[in-house]
Every structure is written in C-alpha cells, then in structure tokens.
Design brief:
Blueprint: E1 2-12, E2 15-24, E3 28-32, H1 39-47, E4 54-59, E5 62-66, E6 71-72, E7 80-83, H2 95-105, H3 115-121, H4 137-150, E8 155-159, H5 167-184, E9 188-192, H6 195-201, E10 204-209, E11 212-217, H7 219-222, H8 226-229, E12 238-242, E13 252-256, E14 260-263, E15 275-285, E16 291-297, E17 300-306, H9 308-314, E18 321-326
C-alpha cells in the first residue's frame, strides 16, 4: 500500500505546486522544507481540500483523483485524517464532544482507540469536559490529534504538530506517533521545517522547495545530498545519525557540524564518550571562511566545522585518519 502522486499540479493564486512522489505505507514520512515550500498545500491536496489542476492521486490502488478521467473522491470519503497546525476544533463543543463527534463518524469495520483510551494515552483525561476555547495551544494540539485518531483514518496527515508543545510533551508526542503508526498499521505524514524533528521522526523523507519536490527517500541517503543541504541554514549543516546514544534503534538524530570536534590522533584521557574514528572524505571552505570537514565513520558521514588555523594545526588531508568527538548534548 502506498500513496502516489503522478504529474500532480495544484494552483493557489500565483503559487504552483508540482508533485511526483510515492509515500510508503509503513512508518512516518516527513515532508521537510523552508516556509513557503508548499508543504501544507501538499497535505491539503492529499486530504482533498485542494483540487488538482492536473495529474492523479491514488491511495492503496484506489483512485482518489484523476483530472483527465474527471474522477474526484471528496475529502470526507478519503479515509484520511488531517490535523492542521491551528487544531481547528469545534468551538461550540467540549473536548469530549469533539471526540464523540469523530467517534460517531468512523466506519464500524475499522478499529481505533475510543475517547477514554485516547485521552489517557495523550494525557488529557482531566480536560474531557472543558470547553475547547479554554485550552492552551499544547492541549489543543493533543486533542486535535486524538480526534483524528478516533475517526480511524487509513492515513494520518499532521501539519507542524509539535509547534505548541514543550520539551517533555514533544518527546512523548513523538514516541506516541511512532507506536501508533506501528501498532495500528497507519502511515503517517508529518510536515516540519525543523531539521531536528525531521531527523528524529523520519523513516522516509520528502524535501521541498518553492512548490517542488527536491528529493525523497530514506533519511540516511537523502540527508547527505547537496540539494538537501541547500535547504538548511548554514548553522544547521550536519549529518543524520541512526541509533545514537539514548535513542531507540531505528531512531535518528541530527548532529550539527558545530557540535563535532576533530582530532588527528586517537583521543585519550578525556571525558567524552562519543568518539568515532574515520577517514577524511572531503574538505570544503565555506563563504565565511570556516572549514567544513566530512568524515566517513561507522556511523555514516559526519560533518565538523573548524577554523582554517585548526585545519593547519591538525594537518588533515583527504583520505587521512581523524577522530570525531561528538558533544553529549548533540545526541
């Protein structure tokens, strides 16, 4: 099962979105890119809230939209749940009322957590009888996700779901999404412009800029590409590392180049525990004069940003040995 967009075009005013991609049926797909890339418009097109101007969209072999054949399944019949960044709860209902509405509309044949269960899982049991207008931003985010899950979607789309959440809630939310997708067999698509979120969540990544898909695929491969690096702020340049310390197997973490020290000989007698040997794969001078070193290690390609003076002192050359010392806070 997968969701496929072929020759898809969406227009809104002067903005034009073009998409040619496949979203797999398992795990979490992250749609990443800067503001204005068209990420939210892509979700709305998949959900049926924006009409395709050209192309077609299929999900699990079912045609949801085909412009040439004049086929278009309306949004409420697509079995796709969409959670907007601003939650969009029903203001005249309580939290419980919002969840009961979704529960009453789900197909009997599909299983999903019920109101009490989902409120316990997302830690808002004490909010069930509160009017939604009295909720904080983080509470609204959790209730909006719960409402979408209770409707038993076959695919879940989330637009910047962590924006209103603090550190602990955000980590719990991310863990819940991974477990829910795996246990229920529901593919999840998450939009974010934050590289740390993309690295942590993605089993598959779609990178976008200016209404186009720049590249898509597995994080370990896509996040090393120059076209992906071009989407990042210079201070966010770094590398995706799998199975880093403190993370579950299969999780990723983004290690910024500024968080990696280099040594030309094996470090001894220091407190750091994340020391990865490797070979220098590339040396690049950045526009501000800093030096970006690419190191091929057992963890993959790691980037480190050093000064020209450090490069001269360490006598680093392509193909030579070096050791990456990764600061603990980066993992």
């Amino acid at each position: 099962m997968s969701l496929d967009l072929r020759g898809a075009v969406v227009r809104r005013g002067a903005f034009r979105l073009s998409a040619e991609l496949s979203i797999p049926s398992d795990g979490i797909t992250v749609v990443f890119g800067p503001s204005g890339a068209g990420k939210s418009m892509l979700l709305s097109a998949i959900a049926g809230l924006h009409r395709l101007a050209a192309g077609n969209l299929t999900f699990d072999g079912r045609v949801l939209e085909n412009v040439d054949a004049r086929v278009r399944v309306p949004a409420h019949e697509r079995a796709i749940g969409l959670v907007f960044q601003d939650a969009r709860l029903f203001p005249h209902l309580s939290v419980r009322g919002n969840l009961h509405y979704a529960e009453s509309r789900r197909p009997a044949a599909r299983n999903a957590p019920i109101t009490v269960e989902i409120s316990r899982l997302l830690e808002f049991e004490d909010l069930l009888d509160r009017p939604v207008k009295n909720l904080s931003g983080g509470e609204r985010s959790r209730v909006a996700l719960a409402r979408a899950i209770v409707s038993a979607p076959e695919m879940l789309l989330l637009d910047e779901p962590f924006a209103a959440l603090d550190g602990r809630r955000r980590r719990d939310f991310a863990r819940f999404l991974k477990e829910y997708g795996r246990d229920q067999g529901v593919p999840i698509v998450v939009v974010t412009h934050l590289i740390d979120e993309a690295a942590e969540l993605a089993n598959h990544i779609v990178a976008m800029r200016a209404g186009r898909v720049v590249c898509s695929g597995q994080p370990a491969e896509i996040m090393t590409r120059p076209e992906f690096a071009a989407l990042l702020d210079p201070r966010d340049r770094g590398a995706w590392v799998q199975g880093a310390s403190g993370h579950a197997p299969g999780d990723g973490v983004w290690v910024r180049a500024d968080s990696v020290l280099l040594a030309s000989a094996e470090p001894r007698g220091i407190s750091a525990r994340n020391i990865w040997p490797g070979r220098v794969a590339g040396i690049m001078r950045e526009p501000d004069g800093a030096i970006l070193i690419s190191l091929d290690t057992a963890k993959g390609y790691i980037l480190s940003r050093i000064t020209p003076e450090a490069l001269a002192d360490l006598k680093l050359e392509e193909g030579g040995e070096a050791w990456a010392i990764v600061k603990a806070h980066a993992l």
